[in-house]
Amino acid sequence: MMSVTYFHFFNGLNKHYQLKETIDGSAAITFDVPHSKRLSDHTYSYYDEYGPSEYVDISVNVTDVTGLTYNSSARVSIVMNKYNLEFLQHPQIIKPSMTFTAQLKLSTYDSRPLTAEEQSGSVRLAVTQSKFSPWTWTWDNNESLAPRMMNDTPSFSSIYDIPVENIDLPVTADGVMSFQIHLSDSVATLNIEARFKDAVQGLQLYRSYSSPSSSYIQLHRDSEPQVGQPLYLTLESSFNLAEFHYLVMSRGRVVDAGTVHSSSFSLNTNHSWTPEACVLVYHTLPDGEIVNDALQVTFTQVLRNTVSLSWSQDHAKPADSVFLSVSVSEAGSLLGILVVDKAALDSSKDNGITEKTVLEEFMSYSREMTHTDYSSMKMGDPYSIFMTCGVTVLTDAMPNQEIDQFFPAFRADVYRNQLDSEAFQEPRKRKDFPETWIWLDANVSNSVSDSFQFTVPDSLTSWVAFAIVMSENLGLGISAPAELIVFRDFFVSLNLPAFLIRGELLLLEVNLFNYMDVDLEVMVVVAESWMFEFVSPDNGGFSLDNVRKASVLSNNITTLLFPIRATALGEIPISVKATSVYSSDWVYKTVLVKPEGLEQSFTQTLFLEFQLNQKTLTRTMSFSFPPNVVPDSQRASISAVGDILGPSIDNLDSLIEMPYGCGEQNMIHFAPNIYVLQYMRSTKQSDEQTRNKAMSSMMEAYERELSYQRIDGSFSAFGDSDNSGSTWLSAFVLRCFLQAQDFISIDRMVMQRMAYWLLAHQNSDGSFNEPGRVIHTELQGGLDGPVSLTAYVLIALLEDAEYRSAYEGSISSAVSYLTSRPSQGISSNYSLSLVTYALSLANSTAAPSALTELLNRALIVDGVPTWRSPANVLYNSWQPSSSDIEISAYVLLAMHRLRLMDEGFTLMKWLSKQRNHQGGYGSTQDTVMALHALSIYATFSSAESIDLSITVNGASGAAATFNIDRYNYLLQQSQDLPIEAEEEVDIEVVAEGKGFALFQLSVFYNVMNLRTSLRRRDMHTNEAFDLYIDVMDNEEFSVNLYICFRLRENQGLRQTGMAILDVGLLSGFSLAQNGVQLDDIVRRVETPSGRVILYLDTVTTVERCSEISTIQEFKVTNIQDAVVMIYDYYETQRRTVRSYTSETRRDMSVCSLCGPDCAQCGVQDIWLTDRTTSINQHPLLALSLTTALIILLSIYN
């Protein structure tokens, strides 16, 4: 299917076409575009620099013989002329009496070299100078500027003062022609029109350099820039110039400066100039006026270091041994090599490691150092020229600066935004199919070359190798990619989904590719397994048809389908062998089979602590599975560790099972590492593996987090795509960055810009306001919102001594605001906990009373103070709510600041036992704050005194034993626990020795009987959201979901913070291209395996709906239910779960997916030409039948 959209900007045309074609290798498809009325050459040429005004968008969906669908898109510009003309290397402003120097490039529309005939011609320039400037135009009630610019004749034609000057430029071989124009003393407008045959291009410069004394200087480059070679320059002036000063800026730094006494001079270049330098010259006249000019110099040779890669051969087969040779420029270089599957590289994003990407990064950094507000159209005065080079001017001289004036044309940026042969042998089993083959770092110490030997993986693909080198003297170097093609003339390809649900029926797709010169008769055998059964396609019953014969023509593909039904859980083996007289192949893969229903988990933690003179502790733990548990889905594990942070340290990279695709959620991979490193530093631990892991994770998260910083320095959930930065998120990021700077390099400018932005949103009473969205529900706080937000920002500003000093006034104002709040009444426990911790950090005398008030509100349960949310509004869970965890963490932190550690140990033990099996809690904020608190209290535990053993007894005896001492107390030891009864788990835990340990029982299971999509009149008071799913499954290869949701009134909220709509897909389906539309509610879409995750900006009590389009990728019938879940990200117990299915796919017969007459599944006997079955001619089938007969006899006996 090809979708074509024809678009014409000026005429407003927007035509859509859809075409279907059968493609054999390639196909030519023709369509007619509408005839468009062409505007004037002048108008077209003016806007050509901003991109094409007429183009065709093409989207193609191709389904191959294997059933896989591939998508691609392209934009094709429609050109009006055979030739293109482009002005290059010209100043953006004009200076009277100076020489205007520029280049003109002639090229063909398809960029082919110019012919001899074309080179014999010339380009005619028509040059017009005028004293009149459009900058002198003014608005009045009866006049509009835009129509004047859109006139078909060149602008200002009636007021030219100087006759048109014609210049003929002989065409050069490369098409680049240089020319000069001497400007008159009174020129204000310069118009140049270039013509070559049918091509016309205009250049109009309206802005003259602003000088009260009409004094001008202009800098010309006399040589091409090359690193290490002198750059020759000439300075032209309109007055007697005895000396001038120059300054060279690159990447935000001054790389050269000096004074020159000659109009012709040279500067010595080096690598500090790269990739782009700004050469600034200036002179101060006797009356204090400054005149200046700037020249941008771009270098193409940026990296000094070189590295090259080469394979020992261009083509290889799986399991071949190959060598990858590398050469560097300097011995002792640090070398990194990456080899990835070419299919994994996204060509549209250019995500390979190339010198081009590095150069683009350098260039972007260099341009960030300049003041982008001063665009080329504003460079009409000395001050803006200084700013163009990124120079801030502090002087008692007079650098003239003009205010912005209206530019007389409709805005081009608005326009831009709209465009945007082997003999027979036993085959080797192929089972290694990585996306990344090699990830290697090495030190090339003794020479400048080395060679590495590798075994080629089993993937039939192209492997692309990249190398990065660093050396002491030459710095960074990047190789050109080196490609290795892995191929076989005959091979098997399996089309398998990532997972199935038990009971579903998969049509195992075996594709036979024959690129040999002969036709092949191939016997295909799918190995039997106890984990799945073969199914008869005509009746769905048990089958023994695991052997088939197929004819595969030369340079062709044949597809066979084997219907199988998964009967066991876990990774089922799929082993397929294809043999012929000439060649053979054997492929092994696995498919994960999941249980039906929704996965649940339960974790119970024991804090095993010996009292004085106590040598033995005995505890019992039990868990009863619910009645609707899915059979065989039950599993359990046990673990033990001798450190309070141990369960979390072991899982730093996966503390919670939640998406992390926004600016706040990404911090779950940043902040916890800080507290682990602080704890290790405080306790003088030297576990380098943990330390390196934590720092590596922090660096990766830090780099991701910077993508959410906005241009004004603030942070928000989705960066610049949000309407405003977020005070709350900016404060959170600032606090974490300040804490992390002891361990990794944090850009101080990033933190300072955040702080400036935060302080700009402080009110006169000391409170802070929130211009953006607060995606954390509890921080919205109702009437307490300003209080909790102010406390949150204050906590960040108090994190660093330097910031305390620098922003003392703002901090004092915020403290004063918060100090008065408790006496006025803070209704929210959450807000009060934030205020208490903030005041304790500020050493406020009001902190103890605030803590006392908070403790007085607590409900004491088993001697532990708790602050519980109303149970009837949250999803049933063994874990406390996220806000309860956060409050407890803030209380512990405040107690630590107020030196009340002893009073906090009971609460600390309770908090340490509320973690999930991964070491985290419910969401980002509660996990971060809880681990912060636990890390402080963990420093007071003594590893020296730990020496104990833990024995776990089940119904049939000892199940496990863990030994913990001062050498291994940080290591979390774990073991699977056999499920001895389907109804429950009962264990006895016996600890002997001294010290303490955390023991954890984690249980996992699935439940059925989920609520399916309900009618809107159905009411369930124990759910947080209404959630409805309409399934539209009438199309042959697609299923569309129409999902509606809203927040229920029983939550006591008008809206949530950020919410997640987690949509499980039916087996064999994936999200269609553009299958979800982003809007003001759906802000981001992610597609992990088998799911579609929608990030919702908020969910209110007003119903909203979203449509999700899915397409069939794999052939599956008897489809089981899929699960849809919506939840508040920062209060995950506020959730609703539904299931849905496709009745059409659930009841679909196997044969309906097996092609005409069910032939692809073997119902028509393609094994014998006479359509009679002969066991003698099918020995493997005979073996299978014999085996089956023995099994059946044993059953009946």
UniProtKB/TrEMBL annotation:
Gene Ontology terms: cellular component: extracellular space
Protein family membership: Belongs to the protease inhibitor I39 (alpha-2-macroglobulin) family.
Domain Alpha-macroglobulin receptor-binding: 1056-1140
Superkingdom to which the source organism belongs: Eukaryota
One GO MF term: serine-type endopeptidase inhibitor activity
Protein name: CD109 molecule
Record keywords: Disulfide bond, Glycoprotein, Protease inhibitor, Serine protease inhibitor, Signal, Thioester bond
All residue ranges annotated as the Alpha-2-macroglobulin bait region domain in the record: 217-347
PANTHER family in alphabetical order: CD109 ANTIGEN, MACROGLOBULIN / COMPLEMENT
PROSITE patterns linked to this entry: ALPHA_2_MACROGLOBULIN
InterPro entries from the UniProt entry: A-macroglobulin_rcpt-bd, A-macroglobulin_rcpt-bd_sf, A2M/Complement_sys, A2M_N_BRD, A2M_TED, Alpha-macroglob_thiol-ester_cl, Alpha-macroglobulin_TED, Ig-like_fold
Domain Alpha-2-macroglobulin as annotated: residue spans: 436-526
